[in-house]
Amino acid sequence: MPSTSWHPLHASAKCFQVNSKQMPDTPTPSTLDSEQLGDTRAREISGLATYLQGLAEKEKAEIARMLHDELGGLLTAAKMDLSWLQPRIQAPELQERLAQLGGVLDEAMDLKRRLVDDLRPSLLDHFGLPTALRTFVDAACAKAGLTVAIEVADEAQTLSRETAIAVFRIVQEGLTNIIRHGAAAHVRLTMTAEPGGFALYLSDDGCGFEPTATRQTFGLMGMRQRVSAFGGSLAIESAAGSGTTLHIEVPS
Ligand SMILES: Nc1ncnc2c1ncn2[C@@H]1O[C@H](COP(=O)(O)OP(=O)(O)O)[C@@H](O)[C@H]1O
Ligand SMILES: [Mg+2]
């Protein structure tokens, strides 16, 4: 299971000490040293990536809170002042300006709402993972003109907060990829309860790609990192012309 409280800088410092102690006259075979060093480095980098993803989520949540509470409060106050002014001003050209100002404030409130929701899916906070996934995937597919079938087990509600956010972000990235690269017509999301956890499939019938030929890209790398942080597994089945399926095992 993931250890979210683990601090990679601490591990990094520890590893440095171990290596510097071994460096001088240690007679161990150099190949073993470099293999061990490689493994340690890989674990450190993976731990650091997990830590940074967690940090980014916390910062997003904080920015979302500020936008919602503070900017939201200011915009509401401005709207109230405007409503107070409108019946008190008679000149038609000023009335027109005030109406325009009202429109601008509405747009600003709308933008704030969208930003807050991108930063911190409020559905996830208020209704849990199953509802958040269903609603998000349904709305995103409708907007992109994709036909969608969704089946998410209610038991997914019981996943930890960190795992729920990770699963939500993975589906978000997977769906963004389908919309951006897939040229698909149909999407299917299933998350079923299995012994010991959940099996999640996100598939499309689009152009597909060659997963092994893909250069290292941050979307797929981020997915793998999140999956390894919650102790699950990720398989990508795709081939040019035959759609793509992400298969994720999520331990409960
Ligand atoms: N569902 C999909 N359908 C077609 N191609 C995909 C799909 N998902 C990923 N890809 C391919 O894999 C590449 C890497 O994806 P990703 O790591 O998310 O990077 P990015 O979306 O920034 O290009 C994409 O550029 C695209 O070529
Ligand atoms: Mg992407």
Q: What's a concise summary of this model?
A:
With 252 residues, the chain is α+β, with helices and mostly antiparallel strands. It is 62% helix and 15% strand. A five-stranded mixed β-sheet has the order 1-2-3-5-4, with helices on one face.
Radius of gyration over C-alpha positions, nearest whole angstrom: 24 Å
**SS strand fraction:** 5-15%
Molecular shape? elongated
Order of helices and strands: HHHHHEHEEHEE
Query: Structural class, please?
Result: alpha+beta
Mean pLDDT equals 86
Uncertain runs are 1-27
Number of strands: 5
| Number of structural domains | 2
Query: Hetero groups bound?
Result: adenosine-5'-diphosphate, magnesium ion
* Name of the CATH homologous superfamily of the largest domain: Histidine kinase-like ATPase, C-terminal domain
Spatial strand sequence of the major β-sheet: 1-2-3-5-4
* Count, helices: 7
The CATH architecture classification of the largest domain is 2-Layer Sandwich
- Per the CATH scheme, the topology name of the largest domain is Heat Shock Protein 90
Would you state the CATH class of the largest domain?
A: Alpha Beta
The main β sheet shows up as: 5 strands, mixed
Fraction of residues in H or I helices: 55-70%
Q: Please give the oligomerization state of what you see.
A: single chain
* Terminal-residue CA separation: 9 Å
